[in-house]
Amino acid sequence: MPLPPFPLINFIFLLLSLTLTTATCPNKCGSLQFSYPFGVGSHCSMASSFNIICKKSTHSPKPYFNITDKLLEIIAIYPSQIRVKYPYLLAATCYNNTAVYPHNVTLDVYSSVDLSDTQYAISDQNWLTAVGCDDIVAAFGHNNKSFAGGCVSYCFNNEPGGYGVCPNDENGYSAGNGCCRTSIPKGTTSLAAQLSDLGGKWLRDKYFPCSYAFVEEKRTSKQSAFRYPFSDLNKSKNISKEDEWVLTTPQPVLQLDWRVGTQNCSEAQRNSSTYACKANAECINLESNSDWTQGYLCRCKKGYHGNPYLKACQDINECDNIELNPCDSNAICTNTIGAAYCSCPKGYAGDGWKIDGKGCIPSNMIHVFIGVGSGIGFLLLLSMCILVHILLQKRRNEKRKEKFFKRNGGLLLQQQTNEGTIQKTKLFSSEELEKATDNFNESRILGRGGQGTVYKGMLSDGKIVAIKKSKLLNKDQLEQFINEVVILSHVNHKNVVKLWGCCLETDVPLLVYELVPNGTLFDLIQDPNTEFQVSWNMRLKIATDIAGALAYLHSALSIPIYHRDVKSSNILLGEKYTVKLSDFGISRSFGTDQTHLTTLVKGTFGYFDPEYFQSSQFTEKSDVYSFGVVLVELLTGQRPISLDIREEERSLVIRFLESMEENYLYKILDDQVLKHGNEEEVIAVAWLAQRCLNLKGKMRPTMKEVAIELESLYMFVEDGEVCEAKSMIISDNEYAWAASGISVESTSSILTFSSESMHATSS
Questions:
Q1: Catalytic residue among 124, 565, 623, 670, which?
Q2: Is 24 helix (H, G, I), strand (E, B) or coil?
Q3: pTM here?
Q4: CATH architecture, domain defined by 521-762
Q5: How far is CA 500 from the centre of its chain?
Q6: What is the dotted CATH code of the domain comprising 408-514?
Q7: Could you count the other beta carbons within 10 Å of the beta carbon of residue 369?
Q8: Which segment of the chain is annotated as a signal peptide (predicted)?
Q9: What are the extents of the domains in the chain?
Q10: What is the per-residue pLDDT across 542-561, written as a single tens digit (0 to 9) for each?
């Protein structure tokens, strides 16, 4: 039998060769999976652009492909894109770093990416990045037409060991430090960059000599920012045209769009021998908004699967695939070419479709389902209405709380406090304080005053507190309330009541204090029904502690605080009758640059500083005067103002000063003081009170001096010793009592107790 012609033999051998090689073509290199048109070797790929080189390495093989005479490692292959490592600089420029402008170029290296003769284009998911100080990068490229762009890389500092940081938003246009980026149009087939110095134009030396430009894929805002050490900008000796990556950061990754052929779909389909899409596949033109319009991609039609470039796409049997089956569980699924058909069996009603269909429902259950569906629909509607009502109510409550917060001085509090104060003062929620006081039950009331009602409460952590519910505040009272919060947030003293926090989201503002359970000093010394006898030592201890607290406010803080309403009813008694100074509603901070403070006269009648009442200028000596009244209360046990006696004798201060001047102090002293007080100690305290009550503020001692004298006296009392009165009294020459018109000839003669007087009073 004669042999067939030679061309026929060649065709048969070629066909066998293709069959054998296709069967033996690998679809994996290392961890990278791929499929035709990509392949290892020219016999397994559609064209040289898709030829993968699988190189052996120490751990596992790595995939590469050769493009533009560069061997690039492949990271991933997608239906229309490929990610590769591209560790090459597009430009590198180095300058000398002298004060001569402009800077002289010592190294200028340029490269480019040219994909004109390949099946690839630079994706618009990349950007051109420039790193350096005071340089402008100009980008030039082509995507069926020429384009240009650029950006300026500017350094804000050159700290040793510092880092440059690139903008990390998806567009890359925000400011960076020693870095800038510019976008790359879709379909770019060639790209080059050039760097130019701007330092000379800004008349400053370059921080670092070198600048680099390269291309990399975009980073999302969720990814870490690109950063590099500034020391990388000193690597001029390591740069040449063939050198790879010079930065110490990981090598950049480049995204490339790939295509099949050089024609669009309509042109390619005219030639069946070169048309790449197999049967049951559809041709996809490149995006019309791109200038890179030549070439196309293939994908299997809906209902088919497989490799559209290798062989015909196969029909998917949706009925055998649980995830792809479009039919209801009661329906009959019939597979068709490229799709499936659903129908209901006998005894069922519906169209059989699971999604966007009616499914298959038993015929006798239709009415039941209608009823159940209606009931469920009604319940859902009712639930939605309730939910909307709850959300609206919650929104109204939030707006109401926000309104109260502003009205109760929340903005004023934020304005008057520094950053640390808000952290020290807790803002309680209204729900927490309502729970703590059993909705402000009247059985929890500890007391009522001019500014509000105080309740006893227990917080969620078990802490017992006093909650002050203020009265509805006008603008002036609001300032007092916020002032009290600000003042107490700065104060940390054992004899000053501690403020735990406040609540501003209720109708009236609330203050949360530590609980001081034993009433006030006024109640202790004025209540005739009390069975507790206030000893002289206890009175001296109370006076010493309150003087110490006021001295702390006046002298120990960076900005002095004047209480402005010192009185016995504002001195609370804790366990073991320790004292706590409270009610700072009208207190004021006094800056060191202020010479005096002019304000409306505020305070309590009977404790007023006469000088303050006349001038409206409050000084630290005004608190000293009020403390002097408290001292007199401790000495006498009498009220500052007595309304049941003659008008000219109603003032306790006047009666006390007259008794001092006319030498009958024993007549005004409290019985406990007369019985148990040491004569020298009582004289010393009385003399100190008289100095505090001087009509001239500058003649009064400071609170620090008062505190030191009382502490010294109390130390002698605690040790069982007695300090002579003279040692506690400033000499007569230091004070002239001009206001009283009486010259004091002998302190000891004026402030003495006769034995007859003591006896007569005690009897």
A1: 565
A2: helix
A3: 0.45
A4: Orthogonal Bundle (1.10)
A5: 23
A6: 3.30.200.20
A7: 12
A8: 1-23
A9: 79-258, 408-514, 521-762
A10: 999 999 999 999 998 877 88
